[in-house]
User: Which sequence fits this backbone?
């Protein structure tokens, strides 16, 4: 009875290079702890500093990533997709900063006001700002660690590290009952889907006998040559895909999204509409990398899984888009739009490794930026103290908050895919990917869906600029703190400016999508770009 | 910064400047910017070397921004493009001039939208890359939507939303067609994806007939919404009915033209077999458009809807002539684009000026304005006659060439360009001459001639609708055209007259471009005709030596 | 209201349906074609008339009998000579255009002056001088070399996309001068000058309102007429053709404030447009068959393509019929004549110039110019015959109908309008029966005396404050100042009634002679109907004159702004204190004294009277000079194939043609004169009693009613075409607005929303329900995978 | 009840497939030699699947939030058991390794879940999840 399988032994010896790579995450972790601690200090100035600590931590992570994450180091650590981590860390840092800025001033506002006005004594128990930003950083850290996964354990742990904090964020984002209800729904359904994912991992382990992703891939390649991948593996993969669908809010598992996004406060809604998607897609890419693609050479995932993914992609797109048509609440509408965008990105996955994955990764970036512009601008305005929720509140916003109205409109236009903006280039890449991989029906369905989408995104453009202010919108005014507005504006400007760097972004995404097989190619390509 | 790039960037700068200045100064800044663009456009026209060769100029490879997506910043246009650019550059300042007194609220935004639109349209006409064209073509949508939605008429919102959804879905369908073609090219030749118009045209023509059928249907289907063809036309009367004067002028004068320019530049060259196979279908739609819409025009009482329906009929004839696949028809179609832009824009300006004074578009309420505004009625009758295709004015030249083109399509092989449209299309299309006269004369009889009828609540009374109403417009006497309004309309009228009397220069310019577009069709139709049993008369005509020389002649 | 529009579609549908059914047959068999075309011809030419004519059925059989009728042997046309030293001819065209620009400027700046009249008369005078100079310079060379003159002026439409013959299309503005164009240039410019002079006084009362606009339109009219006549290609002719249509639209609608005038203008323009449609279609077909539209190369092409090469199928055969449709539209023939009587809404000089002398003769010019298309050589045997017969029947039918309606009218201007229609019918019949010379000669003489008639009518109306109903006037011969006008009107009526030895008699009798002596039986019938119509013409001509001139003096002035017809708002120009609006004369006529025509009007009337008399000179001098002046013109033009007036020795009813015709014609005219004398001069009561008798006897009621209401043709068109077309358009507009836009688009728009509503109940809000639907989803996917496995076994 | 029925037949199908196919799959692979599927592995695997089903059904039927959490925990443990079963089959310890991590994560979830439940209880004095259904379409 061999006590330790060779794979586990091998893993423990070459830990050196792997540790080097997770330095950025470590920096982030330290930042999270610092935030948590400073949030509890009696000195009001320290508490006010917490968001800025979070921002500095993110910037530091970005810097260390740039230094640490060189192609040689990545290949040394035998990661399944060496450059994926670099892209995801950069993406999460940049968008993470946006989320942090968007939520400044919204957490603990009542408590801070009481303390400032001296009516209530400071009580560490009631203050949550510290944990709030800590959890944001932890969740981002989990998302980044996913890319380092070389085996299922690491994958599962990073997966959980990324999703658990989000449940808490939803609960503490806004004191009202609605966020509590959203949190409980999100948690329970999340737990159920994670359990399904875990069962899927179990079956994958059962089919290959190893937790090592590289070993798994070899055994699957073997099985592919000798009469196809076993049924246990297929069931395992299916369960894993279903588990991941919850994170992506893809069709069978999307029911929570509208309620949770509506319940959570706007900055948190922005966060949970983006980070879980990154987490879901990275896990999906890593898993499909082992089961399909490079596994059986002709870069195609097993037909059963491909068919299931195809069905999920189409249903997600369609239900997401037509669902949004009926909504009167802006956040619910954006929830449905996020469901639809997951559908678009699944098309990228289906389009196969060479062209599909980098299209999805690029679309993740465009969606993140546009999402923050729209959700951020919702976060930046309030109606006599309460969150702005229904679309009618946006009428005539141009008069009361011109900057926020512009950001909202530009974000919506970018999500629709109006050309000069960033969203168009993401969609174009997806269209080209599906066309080049002969998914003609998907191409047509996506086109029709973006036609339907044009209708409801138009409301976000028309309400602030075309509609006249109604008595109901008298109370609408920007949030006292300037930062949410600035973050929405910065990301709206991003929608306009980033297309000028489209080449570099596409290059980075393409590099990220390269699997370790063509190592030399990765090195050559990154130099040439 | 070559002329072409300047032409795109200048209006953008102007638009941003418009936002900067005060409300009152906005209109002057807007006008100056658009006149500057006009100057650059005329400079481009003078420097344009390929007036007679039909070649594309300036083929400059600009910024390498989107090469990873296969999109080259290639700018270039041929004679037809330059004509449309100059037309746009003339129409925008004229439409601004007309709306000085009409628009009183949010003037900064108003003039900025027009300049945004102008830069997008210029990009569309100058693009030699399919996605670059799509960017220009799609971006005209946002300013147009805002113009109709903010400064429009009474129930402007549904009209604006319908305009937005129709155009967006249409352009997405065309995009699917382009991407399908480009992706096919990339996979077949193994090269990275490339959206260059030339590469796609060459690749498209090598595709098997069945795929070309789908590609043509997708691309032409998308542009059919913008032309508009009959089943998908219902957004145009609504949009025109609600748009402000300048909005209608730009919508009729420029936006419809991009749809047709797209069909001419992309749909016909990229899928000739598909075009041939679908020609009877689209020709039948065009015919329904001509006859049906002319009759519908005849019973309209809202004069703006009447002119909108009439432009559907006119565009139907222009497209039908293009489907005749011969030089005369194509030339007639292209010239019709320019002429329709001039005469219909002029008519909308007249109607707008009248609307400014009487606040109603209903022909039953207002009439016999010749007594009140004689100079206005001269312009109105002039533009009506131009759109009526009266010989001596521009409408006639293009309508005559279109009809002649449809006829030559049936003239068998001797003209060197055998067409596939039978004589029935030709005779039914010729009815357009009479039907066109019906509704225009009815409008003139109600509007300009006959006893003077004015709205009951007196002219200039406060208008109940629209935020941009003219406030408490003092009930002053209706005055005839002032100098500004005449200056706005004079260039269009002069252009109509000059093209009508001396069309030689424009025809020489358009001919090579038309020949280039039609060149691939000669061989295809000959092959079709050869294997289809034809009347004895035509068979020996085929053996006549004229055909090959003609094809060679047309190509050089 | 749909009358005019209704009319517009009658010819189209008949024409289009015939062609459509025919064209789609694609390879027409020989037998089908003639039958189809005869029905078309009958439908076009004499649909309503077929009932009366009875034996139209065997038209086809009789046609084959006569060979010389349409088969004129091989055609030969002399090649045109380009001669640049006639370049000054372009000034003949530019002079009126300069006047157009000047008058237009004056109108725009609302300048109140008489200058527009001066510009116009000067321009026309210059053109007349040039026309006469052209006759003297180019005439002799033309008459002996028979070679027409071409002068390039300006290039307009010229495309070429290949070297071969059918691969270029040139239609530049150049001049092609031959016999008939020179004749037309002469009498158009002369008459235009005289009438412009007349109008300068007649329109004086409108000095402020529309004087400049009137002369702008008149100058533009003459310019367009000259382009039409002088152009060297069909598209130039089309430019002139539509130009005159536009000017007649502007001039009929001159009194823009009156709804009747604008409706009449619209009706005229649309009916002309139907004719233009015919012309346009003809031009396209000519180009597709002969590859050119330039007269010179076209006629050479016709001459060279021998009859055996005529396999153009239906498209060649259709050309003559389409040209005929154009003629009907412009010269108010056949089905499209109803616009001319309504054109009387325009001021009288307009009626005289445009609707009597010049524009309406454009149709005859086209027939003369395009005569080669009506020969067997050009379009094949069986169609040439039918085409010519159709032209003949349309002319004859229109003449007869025009005359019958004229008898019933009480408004003397409308009587003269119907008489114009009738005379035009004669001219078209002339070309139809084979004598282009007869037709053209009658055009020449008719232009003079009809202009005279209209101008006298104008003078009377001008004087009687717009009164047009001759029952309210009488004994004008005795009224001081009107004696000259009435004498001129008598002369005009005599010429109209073709009194023996009058100029009209000389020209009209040639037509009747050729018709009666032709060996085609149908043509002989046309001849007899022509003789009958001549009698009716005599009756109504003198009916008007007797009512107006003889009998007790009775002057009932029409209201100044007479609602119905009186439309020249005249005021005593001399009477300083009266303003335009209030007319001093009250309806009662107590203080009213008729306003005698001024010097310029009387001058023009006398000149025209002299001209009408001299119009007969060509035939009076025929014996001494050996040739007829007009015949020489026709022989030196493309219409020469029709110039010959048949065999000299032919017989009518067995006896010598000339003498018998003379006897028959004079007897018929005298009969008409006597009938008019009895009913309207000697015993007016008898006339009224007879009319009352006929009205209440059911058997004869339809005659007076029909003739007074123009056989209800307008109402007929309105009923079967106008109303249905209007309803159809309303239905189309409704479907477009509410069905396509309302139902279909809304359905497509709302479908996604509808589907969303189906899924909406799934979002109930409780965690359990979400978990259940999720589990359901997973179950479905796994079930599907298992099903695929069991069936496909996909690994 | 229908929910449970579907669950049962789903499990049987997975069961049958995995049992039937597993030996074939294992026999074929030449990777680290997987031993034949002894009977007890099948039993533990079936147990794991049944446990998972029970957890799922419990989660669907129970209204009380704590019991709902317990059923999710049950699902987690079912997965852990599956890992152990497969570890035993492959005679490979990494299955056990995974179980340890699963336990830690389950513990973290438990802490979080109870925190949330307490928060909600303090707000609405009831543990039933029916009370929390305001957010809906």
Assistant:
């Amino acid at each position: 009875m061999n006590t330790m399988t060779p794979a586990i032994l091998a893993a423990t010896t070459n830990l050196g290079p792997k540790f080097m790579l997770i330095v950025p995450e470590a920096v982030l972790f330290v930042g999270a702890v610092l935030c948590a601690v400073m949030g509890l200090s009696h000195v009001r100035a320290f508490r006010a500093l917490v968001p800025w600590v979070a921002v500095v931590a993110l910037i530091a992570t970005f810097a260390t990533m740039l230094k640490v994450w060189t192609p040689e180091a990545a290949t040394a650590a035998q990661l399944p997709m060496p450059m994926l981590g670099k892209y995801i860390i950069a993406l999460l840092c940049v968008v993470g900063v946006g989320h942090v800025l968007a939520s400044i001033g919204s957490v603990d506002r009542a408590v801070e006001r009481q303390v400032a006005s001296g009516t209530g004594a400071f009580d560490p128990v009631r203050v949550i700002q510290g944990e709030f930003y800590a959890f944001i950083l932890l969740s981002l850290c989990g998302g980044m660690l996913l890319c380092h996964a070389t085996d299922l354990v690491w994958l599962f742990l990073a997966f959980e590290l990324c999703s658990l904090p989000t449940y808490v964020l939803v609960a503490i984002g806004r004191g009202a009952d609605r966020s509590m209800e959203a949190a409980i729904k999100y948690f329970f359904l999340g737990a159920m889907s994670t359990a399904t994912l875990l069962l899927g991992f179990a079956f994958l382990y059962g089919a290959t006998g190893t937790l090592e992703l590289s070993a798994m891939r070899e055994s699957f390649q073997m099985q592919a040559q000798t009469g196809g991948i076993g049924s246990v593996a297929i069931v395992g993969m299916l369960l894993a895909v279903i588990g991941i669908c919850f994170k992506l809010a893809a069709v069978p598992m999307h029911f929570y999204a509208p309620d949770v996004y509506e319940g959570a406060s706007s900055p948190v809604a922005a966060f949970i509409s983006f980070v879980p998607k990154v987490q879901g897609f990275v896990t999906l890419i890593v898993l499909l990398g082992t089961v399909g693609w490079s596994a059986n050479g002709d870069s195609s995932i097993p037909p059963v899984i491909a068919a299931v993914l195809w069905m999920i992609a189409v249903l997600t797109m369609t239900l997401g888009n037509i669902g949004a048509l009926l909504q009167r609440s802006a956040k619910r509408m954006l929830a449905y739009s996020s469901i639809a965008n997951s559908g678009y990105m699944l098309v990228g996955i289906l389009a196969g490794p060479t062209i599909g994955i980098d299209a999805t990764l690029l679309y993740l970036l465009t969606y993140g930026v546009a999402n923050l512009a729209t959700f951020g601008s919702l976060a930046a305005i309030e109606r006599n103290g309460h969150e702005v929720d229904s679309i009618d509140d946006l009428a005539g916003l141009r008069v009361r908050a011109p900057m926020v109205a512009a950001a909202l409109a530009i974000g919506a236009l970018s999500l629709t895919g109006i050309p000069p903006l960033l969203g168009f280039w993401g969609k174009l890449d997806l269209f080209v990917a599906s066309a080049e991989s002969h998914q003609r029906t998907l191409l047509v369905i996506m086109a029709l869906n973006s036609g339907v989408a044009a209708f409801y995104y138009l409301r976000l453009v028309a309400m602030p600029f075309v509609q006249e202010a109604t008595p109901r919108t008298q109370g609408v005014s920007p949030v006292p703190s300037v930062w949410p507005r600035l973050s929405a504006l910065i990301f709206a400007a991003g929608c306009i400016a980033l297309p000028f760097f489209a080449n570099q972004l596409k290059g980075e995404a393409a590099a990220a999508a390269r699997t370790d097989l063509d190592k030399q190619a990765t090195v050559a390509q990154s130099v040439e770009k | 910064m070559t002329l072409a790039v300047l032409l795109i960037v200048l209006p953008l700068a102007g638009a941003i400047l418009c936002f900067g200045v005060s409300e009152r100064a906005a209109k002057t800044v807007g006008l100056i910017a658009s006149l500057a663009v006009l100057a650059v456009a005329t400079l481009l026209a003078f420097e344009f070397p390929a007036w007679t060769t039909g070649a594309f100029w300036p083929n400059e490879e600009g910024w390498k921004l989107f090469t990873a997506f296969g999109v080259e910043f290639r700018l270039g246009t041929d004679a037809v493009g330059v004509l449309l650019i100059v037309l746009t550059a003339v129409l925008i300042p004229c439409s601004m001039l007309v709306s000085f007194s009409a628009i009183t609220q949010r003037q900064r935004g108003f003039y900025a939208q027009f300049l945004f639109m102008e830069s997008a349209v210029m990009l569309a006409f100058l693009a030699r890359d399919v996605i670059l064209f799509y960017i220009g073509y799609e971006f005209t949508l946002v300013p147009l939507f805002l113009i109709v939605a903010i400064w429009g008429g009474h129930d402007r919102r549904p009209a604006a939303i319908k305009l937005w959804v129709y155009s967006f879905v249409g352009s997405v369908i065309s995009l699917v067609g382009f991407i399908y073609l480009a992706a096919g090219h990339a996979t077949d030749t193994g090269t990275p994806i490339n959206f260059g118009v030339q590469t796609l045209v060459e690749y498209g023509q090598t595709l098997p007939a069945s795929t070309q059928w789908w590609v043509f249907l997708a691309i032409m289907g998308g542009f059919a919404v913008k032309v508009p063809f009959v089943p998908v036309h219902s957004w145009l009367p609504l949009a025109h009915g609600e748009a402000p004067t300048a909005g209608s002028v730009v919508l009729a004068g420029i936006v419809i033209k991009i749809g047709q320019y797209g069909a001419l530049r992309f749909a016909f060259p990229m899928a000739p077999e598909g075009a041939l196979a679908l020609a009877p279908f689209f020709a039948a739609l065009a015919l329904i458009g001509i006859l049906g819409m002319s009759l519908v025009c005849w019973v309209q009482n809202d004069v703006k809807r009447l002119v909108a329906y009439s432009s559907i009929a006119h565009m139907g004839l222009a497209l039908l002539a293009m489907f005749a696949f011969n030089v005369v028809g194509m030339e007639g179609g292209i010239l019709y684009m320019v002429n329709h832009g001039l005469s219909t824009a002029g008519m909308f300006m007249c109607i707008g000026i009248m609307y400014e004074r009487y606040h109603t578009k209903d022909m039953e309420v207002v009439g016999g304005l010749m007594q009140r505004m004689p100079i206005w009625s001269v312009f109105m009758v002039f533009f009506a006659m131009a759109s009526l295709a009266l010989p001596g004015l521009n409408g006639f030249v293009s309508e005559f060439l279109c009809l002649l083109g449809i006829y030559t399509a049936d003239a068998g092989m001797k003209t060197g360009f055998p067409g596939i449209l039978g004589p029935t299309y030709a005779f039914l299309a010729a009815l357009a001459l009479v039907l066109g006269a019906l509704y225009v004369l009815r409008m003139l009889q109600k509007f300009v001639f006959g006893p003077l009828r004015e709205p009951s609540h007196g002219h200039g009374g406060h208008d109940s609708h629209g935020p941009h109403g003219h406030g408490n417009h003092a009930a002053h006497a209706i005055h005839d055209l002032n100098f500004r309004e005449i200056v706005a309309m004079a260039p269009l009228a002069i252009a109509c007259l000059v093209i009508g009397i001396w069309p030689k220069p424009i025809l020489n310019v358009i001919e090579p471009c038309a020949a280039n577009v039609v060149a691939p069709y000669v061989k295809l139709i000959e092959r079709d005709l050869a294997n289809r049993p034809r009347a004895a008369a035509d068979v020996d005509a085929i053996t006549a030596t004229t055909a090959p020389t003609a094809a060679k002649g047309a190509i050089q | 209201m749909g009358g005019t529009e209704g009319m517009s579609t009658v010819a189209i549908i008949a024409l289009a349906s015939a062609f459509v059914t025919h064209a789609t047959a694609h390879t027409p068999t020989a037998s089908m074609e003639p039958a189809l075309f005869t029905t078309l011809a009958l439908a076009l030419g004499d649909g309503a008339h077929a009932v009366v004519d009875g034996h139209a059925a065997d038209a086809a059989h009789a046609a084959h009998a006569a060979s010389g009728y349409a088969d004129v042997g091989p055609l030969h046309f002399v090649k045109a000579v380009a001669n640049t030293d006639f370049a000054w001819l372009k000034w003949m065209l530019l002079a009126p255009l300069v006047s157009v620009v000047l008058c237009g400027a004056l109108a725009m700046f609302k300048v109140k002056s008489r200058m527009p009249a001066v510009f116009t008369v000067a321009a026309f005078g210059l053109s007349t001088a040039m026309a006469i100079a052209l006759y003297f310079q180019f005439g002799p060379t033309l008459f002996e070399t028979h070679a027409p003159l071409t002068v390039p002026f300006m290039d307009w439409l010229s495309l070429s996309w290949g070297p071969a013959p059918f691969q270029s299309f040139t239609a530049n503005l150049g001049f092609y001068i031959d016999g008939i164009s020179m004749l037309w240039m002469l009498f158009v410019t002369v008459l235009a000058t005289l009438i412009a002079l007349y109008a300068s006084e007649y329109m004086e009362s409108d000095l402020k309102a529309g004087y400049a606009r009137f002369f702008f339109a008149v100058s533009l009219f003459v310019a367009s007429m000259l382009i039409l006549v002088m152009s060297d290609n069909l598209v130039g002719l089309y430019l002139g053709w539509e130009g005159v249509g536009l000017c007649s639209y502007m001039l009929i609608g001159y009194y823009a404030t009156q709804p009747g005038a604008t409706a009449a203008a619209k009706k005229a323009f649309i009916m002309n447009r139907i004719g233009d449609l015919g012309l346009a279609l003809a031009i396209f077909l000519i180009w597709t068959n002969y590859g050119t539209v330039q007269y010179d190369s076209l006629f050479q092409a016709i001459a060279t393509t021998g009859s055996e090469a005529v396999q153009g199928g239906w498209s060649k055969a259709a050309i003559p019929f389409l040209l005929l449709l154009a003629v009907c539209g412009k010269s108010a023939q056949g089905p499209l004549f109803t616009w001319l009587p309504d054109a009387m809404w325009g001021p009288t000089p307009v009626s005289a110039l445009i609707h009597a002398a010049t524009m309406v003769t454009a149709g005859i010019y086209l027939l003369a110019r395009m005569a080669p298309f009506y020969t067997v050589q050009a379009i094949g045997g069986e169609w040439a015959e039918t085409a010519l017969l159709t032209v003949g029947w349309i002319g004859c039918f229109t003449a007869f109908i025009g005359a019958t309606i004229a008898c019933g009218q009480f408004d003397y201007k409308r009587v003269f309008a119907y008489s114009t229609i009738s005379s035009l019918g004669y001219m078209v019949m002339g070309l139809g029966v084979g004598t282009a010379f007869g037709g053209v000669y009658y055009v020449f003489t008719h232009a003079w005396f009809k202009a005279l008639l209209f101008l006298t009518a104008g003078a009377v109306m001008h004087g009687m404050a717009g009164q047009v109903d001759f029952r309210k006037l009488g004994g004008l011969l005795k009224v001081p100042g009107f004696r000259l006008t009435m004498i001129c009107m008598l002369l005009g009526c005599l010429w109209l009634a073709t009194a023996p030895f009058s100029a009209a008699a000389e020209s009209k009798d040639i037509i009747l002679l050729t018709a009666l002596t032709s060996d085609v039986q149908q043509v002989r019938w046309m001849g007899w109907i022509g003789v009958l119509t001549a009698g009716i013409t005599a009756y109504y001509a003198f009916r008007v004159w007797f009512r107006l001139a003889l009998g007790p003096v009775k002057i009932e002035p029409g209201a100044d702004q007479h609602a119905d017809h009186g439309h020249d708002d005249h005021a005593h120009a001399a009477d300083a204190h009266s303003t335009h609006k209030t007319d001093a004369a009250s309806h009662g006529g107590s203080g009213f004294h008729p306003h005698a025509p001024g010097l310029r009007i009387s001058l023009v009337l006398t000149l025209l009277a002299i001209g009408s008399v001299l119009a007969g000179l060509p035939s009076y001098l025929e014996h001494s000079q050996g040739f007829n002046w007009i015949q020489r013109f026709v022989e030196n033009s493309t219409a020469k194939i029709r110039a010959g007036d048949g065999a000299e020795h032919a017989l009518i009813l067995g006896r010598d043609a000339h003498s018998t015709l003379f006897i028959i014609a004079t007897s018929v005219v005298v009969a008409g004169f006597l009938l008019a004398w009895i009913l309207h001069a000697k015993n007016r009561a008898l006339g009224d009693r007879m009319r009352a008798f006929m009205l209440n006897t059911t058997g004869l009621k339809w005659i007076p009613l029909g003739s007074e209401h123009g056989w209800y043709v307008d109402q007929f068109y309105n009923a079967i075409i106008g109303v249905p077309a209007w309803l159809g358009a309303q239905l189309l507009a409704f479907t477009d607005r509410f069905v396509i836009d309302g139902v279909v688009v809304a359905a497509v728009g709302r479908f996604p929303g509808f589907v969303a509503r189906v899924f909406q109940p799934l979002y109930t809000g409780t965690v359990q329900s979400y978990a259940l639907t999720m589990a359901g989803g997973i179950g479905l996917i796994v079930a599907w995978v298992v099903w695929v496995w069991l069936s496909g076994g996909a690994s | 009840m229908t929910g449970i029925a579907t669950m049962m037949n789903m499990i049987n199908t997975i069961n049958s497939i995995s049992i039937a196919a597993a030996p074939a799959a294992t026999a074929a692979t030449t990777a680290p030699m997987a031993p034949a599927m002894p009977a007890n592995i099948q039993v533990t695997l079936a147990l794991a699947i049944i446990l998972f089903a029970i957890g799922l059904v419990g989660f669907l039927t129970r209204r009380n939030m704590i019991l709902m959490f317990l059923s999710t925990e049950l699902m987690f443990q079912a997965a852990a058991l599956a890992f152990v079963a497969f570890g035993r089959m492959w005679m490979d310890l990494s299955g056990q390794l995974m179980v340890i991590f699963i336990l830690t994560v389950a513990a973290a979830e438990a802490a979080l879940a109870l925190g949330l439940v307490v928060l909600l209880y303090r707000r609405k004095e009831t543990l039933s999840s029916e009370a929390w259904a305001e957010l809906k379409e």
Remarks:
- Residues 458-475, 535-556 of chain B have pLDDT under 50 and may be disordered.
- DSSP finds 22 helices and two strands in chain B.
- The first strand of chain B starts at residue 57 and ends at 61.
- The first helix of chain B runs from residue 3 to 20.
